[in-house]
Amino acid sequence: MKKALLLAAALAVTTSASAAGKLEIFSWWSGDEGPALEALVKLYKAKYPTVAVDNATVSGGAGTNAKAVLKTRMLGGTPPDSFQAHAGQELIGTWVVAGRMEDLSSLFKSEGWDKAFPKDLLNLISTNGKPWSVPVNVHRSNVMWYNPAKLKAWGVTVPKTWPEFLKTCTTLKAKGVAAPLVVGENWTQQHLWESVMIGTLGAANWENLWAGKLKFTDPKVVAGFTTFGKVMDCANKDASGLSWQQASDRVIDGTSAFNVMGDWAAGYFATTKKLAPNTGFGWAPAPGTTKTFVMLADSFGLPKGAKNRTEAINWLKLMGSKAGQDAFNPLKGSIAARTDSDLSKYNTYGKSAAADWKSNKIVGSLVHGAVAPESFMSAFGAVIDQYVSSRNSAGAAAAAQQLAVRAGIGK
């Protein structure tokens, strides 16, 4: 009882500017994604001017490098005060099940987040009714980006299905576009695979796949792999050497026509490249995924043993606040996780994403941690690598099913 009272008291720490000490925040937001994080840090420093903030960023797309460093620190007993993780199974299936995170139920109650965040999102970040992280945003993964002026010049429109995409690919190649689709390093190819598979299976079967009701070896999933291979035949051959930003650049300069990437690309186009939505860059749901919103959320949790626990709790309070989310998301290209966001602060893309978030079927992203544990994702990249080289759909499906069984998917 005494321990519970102490925890409740700690979580009710006053948010006055008298907080002092240090705060280490650990993320993979660097480079073009840095300004959005800096906007949050600036707000925190204004509220707690005596706190020294250590922005411990480890660069690398989708957090691939950061997760490796985090694992070493968490297992070594030196966790950051708070760290970025994709909301859902990436955090829950790794660090929550290992007993290394604090339950944030008291904080959610005191801050009113059980009412501010959508029910589907609360379910994603919770186990047994207990929330484990604070989502600062919602990203959409299934977006196809293009340059409106270039499509007009080529005389093509945005394809609505993957078979239509393949026809458009043939048309563009005949017009001299060597790689109608641009992809980058391995994780961006997994990202593309996700949109191709959802566009092939449909939202319901995508959910069945992660519930264990549909096996990877099912003919429908094998067919999805085959379609992915045909789509990759439309892509650039130097993919492994490109970051997601470099891949995005090829759409803007007209080297390629399309790129399937999450809507952090909207932040890159608008914030870094200073391009106007609908003229400098355009977007549409990835083929076959109209009316489906494939979501992921960046979130921060509270590790057990955090050195600066009070400062970390105040950081989480800022992350979940309306002011914090509306400062961060317009720069990041994402929308607020809260339902009371001030949409006047967002550009045309952000407003369109917010409307889709409210009206579309919502499913979780594989590549960005929502539907499968890290044990599956850490090995799935090799399956995609092997498939891209071999184009063996049945073999890739069988390998993925073995991973699913080992990761306990569906159990």
TrEMBL record:
GO biological processes: maltodextrin transmembrane transport; maltose transport
Keyword presence, Amino-acid biosynthesis: no
Sample GO molecular function, one term: maltose binding
Name of one Pfam family that matches: SBP_bac_1
Keywords: Signal, Transport
Residues annotated as signal peptide: 1-19
Highest taxon of the lineage: Bacteria
Coiled-coil segments on the chain, per record: none
GO CC list: ATP-binding cassette (ABC) transporter complex, substrate-binding subunit-containing
Keyword Signal: yes
Family: Belongs to the bacterial solute-binding protein 1 family.
This protein's name: ABC transporter substrate-binding protein
Organism whose genome encodes this protein: Deinococcus indicus
